[in-house]
Amino acid sequence: MDTPLLQTKLYIPATRSNLVTRPRLMERLNEGLPRKLTLIAAPAGFGKTSLVSDWVQQLDLPVAWLSLDEGDSELPHFLSYMVAALQKVDGDLGQTLLPLLQLSDPPPAETLMTLLINDIAALKQRLLLVFDDYHLIQTLAIHQALAFLLDRLPPQLHLVFISREDPPFPLARLRVRRQISEIRSRDLQFSLDEARQFLNQTMRLNLLPEAIATLERRTEGWVAGLQMAAIALQSYLTMGDQANPTDFVETFAGDDRYVVDYLIAEVLELQPPHILDFLQQTSLLKRFTAPLCEAVTGQANAQETLTYLEEANLFLVALDNRRQWYRYHHLFGDWLYHRLKQTSPQQLAPLHHRAGRWYQAQGFTDEAIAHALAGEAYEDAANLIEEIGLTMIGQARLSRLQQWITSLPEDVIAERPYLSVLPAWISALHRQADQTERHLRLAESAAKNLKENGPLNAAIACQIAMLWGYVCRLRYDLRASIRHIEQAIQFLPDDNAFLSCTAYLNLGGTYWGLGNFTAAEGPLTKALTFLDFSTTSYPALAASGFLTNSYLQRGQLREAGKVCRDVAQALPRHRRPPPAMAYLAIEQGALLYEQNDLMAAEETLSQAVQLGENLDRIVNVGRALLILARIKQVTGHDDDTAALLERAATKRPPTAAEFDHCQVRLWLAQKNDKAAGRWAEAYEAQRGEERPWHILNELTLAHVLLADNRPERAIEIVSRCEAMAQAAEITGWVIRSLIFKAVCYQTVSHIEQALRSLQQALALAEPADYCRTFIDYGLPMQQLLQQVTAQGIAPAYVARLLAAFPDQTQALPVVNPTPNSQPLIEPLNDREQSILRLMAAGLSNREIADQLYLSVNTIKWHSSNIYGKLGVKKRAEAVDRAHEMGIM
Predict the structure, then answer these.
(1) Mind listing the pLDDT tens digit for each residue in 322-363?
(2) How many domains, the chain?
(3) Same domain, yes or no, for 467 and 486?
(4) Contacts for 166-174: CB closer than 8 Å, 24+ residues apart
(5) 426 lies in the same domain as 489
């Protein structure tokens, strides 16, 4: 269940028809539009919001408005409201962002803002985004996110900040670059003419110029001060003929700068008792509507009272054009609430209690909890927190949840297991094993008390056991983790799909982490049965990714493809893939690569990286980047390969055997033997017990040893890998071991043993239709396959494999020919020869593209074909080879 957003926070505050016109400020604001940012910063009561509200409603531009309060200082919550405000202008804005904000472990703020920036950059029109009361935001993460946005602001967006203080942005740099327009308190002060217009036209006081000048001087043009003085003077003049405006002005002109207390007291003392009660009792509400006011005050005519307050200019701000929702001027509301606490502290708890009950009935649970806590209705607050706690954890609203729980008395938490287990979830998701254990002990104690009073609820027993599994996993005790998760499964409630899906995912994922793929597949398949894109998409899609990977490791490529197809068919039409789809997309990309469908693999893996980087702490984005690097390498794009390798190095996952295997083989293919050697030294220094993932590490080591001219040692290790993989029923690794062993034997001219190993590999690989695992060994494997063909082994399958090798090596004999004696199997066409000549002249891809009126991507595509036909990997090698063959 998503927490509802208060739509009134997204309304542009309504303006009064008799508002003082301020053309000089309107001109200043309009002049600042070409810049990135407009900042209106001044103390309370200077008319900041009224000014901007009036301005934006005169603009011929769409405007998104967000009124902030203290409860918005949590990044996912803040961004949810920010996106909601933008979607008032364009419903597509932020669609890629919203699912990420619901995650228990959301991506970094920079990733979130990048997605939003990309959405905004696609707009065809300009828009304004206004943040009102930004000074209430006290979270560094939000400031940093908006600073990131400011630094990369697309031209389609102009930001407006209304604040009592300067936000912590690089204002000096923005000023130097002329990227900021500022309105300060000195600009907002009423001039003498504006004070006259306000006092005599808006407030209809008909004061003499001398009195106006006195009030303007004493208030220093402070709008709220003038308004309070005017209201007090209006009430004073109702006293009859003896009331003299000059006397009031002289009395008002005391020594205090703003004389706020005096002015408000004068205003309130002249109000009827029921109005005074209404004002004070509703001052604890940040926003209010007539039904809410009636629920809090017990007065039945709240709408009439609100109408009276608005007509009397009693610091009421309408939040919508229909005038259903209001708030008090901040200074006025703060003063009223302070007075309520001083004069009637006994009213606070029941007033908050009534407000909380009203919000609860309307479905605004956050506000209901806030008022319940403020009114010390801790049992009500605890009930509500228990009700939405797991939902908030799923939405990554951990900070707000933690604040609420911290506000509760310890004895209330201690007697409620559903409440006491929530801090354990928070700590577990923050990867704090010791803290999780401490909270779990308290939750167990609370659950024990519950058990003594009745049967232990299955849901709490399930959660406690599952969280102990988390603790063990954080401490890398995976077998103990499995025991706890299996216990959790015994307590699974029948009606909780999320807990069921999460439990089976964790069980299968832990078996997968142990390398026990056969055991992993059962629970992962079970987790996938709970797939529902509206409730369980995250754990179910994670399960689909682990399951597909398990099938790939065990050589069951067809089963892996079926999982991909089934999930794709389950995805609702016309819906963007959720971020958790990255789990499956990475494995689908790996499958497509193995099937030698490089174009589809690149497209799928690129999408996986885009989705997965939002979850890069838990999704193996590095593996996707490495496969992409391999694709770039085999298609001759060496610069792209290097960039992807560098990027992948920052994404090494905790379970790194597969990642390391792919990376080391890429290093070896690039002749970067030093990097591969450093990996081997580090690995050999810490070789541990022999368990399934250890097989892949050993196979990686064998590749390094062969490159280091130690084939006998490589054969010894790869033979052991084959036996271990066979025992563990990991057919995919058996195939890899046999293929590599064949290459090792060929290196030392043991052709009979090489062909025997290759024949065994073909027998296992043919049913799954393996391809790239053979091709990636290049010429040595091609030579072996040609010899296998002569023996009539798996002729159709071997023919398909040979056809998949690049053209320039397809017909090569077993012995390497001299380069300049070998004609091209497929000659270069005219376009390719033109590009090759420009390469030889030293032109870059961009310069070649400009010369031939083609795109850079087209040049890269032609270059890849040239490299393939010449049997090289770099442009310098292509030029040299062309000279050797007489093509140039």
Answers:
(1) 788 998 877 678 778 988 998 899 999 999 999 999 999 998
(2) 5
(3) yes
(4) 166/39, 166/41, 167/39, 167/134, 167/135, 167/137, 167/143, 168/140, 168/143, 169/37, 169/143, 171/39, 174/36, 174/37, 174/150
(5) yes
